[in-house]
Amino acid sequence: MQAIILAGGLGTRLRPLTLKRPKVLLPICNKPLLQRQIGYLAGLADEVILAAGWMHDQIAAWVSKFHLPMEATVVKEAKPLGTGGALTNLRDRVSDDLLVMNGDILTDAALSDLYRTHRKSGGLATVATVKVPDAGRFGTVSVRDGRIVRFLEKTGGRREGIVNAGLYVLDSKALELLPPGKSSLERDLFPQLAESSQLFNFNIDCYWTDVGTFISYLLANLRYAEIEPRGRLGQGSVIKGEVDRLSCIGARCRIAEGSRAQRSVLLDGARVGRGAVVEDSVIGELSSVPDNERIVSAVLMDGRPNSIHGEN
Description:
The protein is of the alpha/beta class. It is built from 6 helices and 26 strands.
């Protein structure tokens, strides 16, 4: 089965971390997000196509360097095509059922159950959905008798609801309904399929997250640090201060005496000075926290801390 990862996004909500690398190559407990996604998809797929745009060359270089559990191909988008256009751009490369995943999600959902639900439905598409406490930043879906009957736009605010989880099985025939050029699965395809009763639901009732914001990115790292404690510390790092069991420390980091890092992520080459405190924060690659500085609930890159409180 073919899988497609939609990796063409600019990662604007994670800037400045994504100014120099694509979002899919940001580390989650010292493994690139893309590596975790490919490992997950290998449970069902035997080939993955990466629909890439922003910094596609970095993605291609990473794919060529690592031994992956299945065949992987990077296809460049000459210009942003949206979630729908990314698939029509691949129309000549795909056949039969497709497993499609957004390039910013992590989940433990059983792919075999998702595919079984799709095959049993006989529809053109099955969308994985999940209930979240802050559905306003995603947009919501309405489900009736196993079918998705309506998509609602983002409304903002914090309220519980069922949202599109960014994981789908599509019959390749569904791609014929998309217009040429730039398009959106959520606006141009799924409403059509819902109206014709061809769009089915698969409910996720286990771990799922969208790592597209600083808070969700930080929480994903903390989660994997807890379940993969051996991966928390990168090679070549020197730690003389205090680091709790949930923090993720990249390669070649330096944490000085008398300093403390709690519930935080330090990317490769980051430094924490003497007496400094880092809590609930992300310290960017090669960034330094000065002696006795306190960084709390912030992302620090190039010497400029930005608060992550209240982000959407």
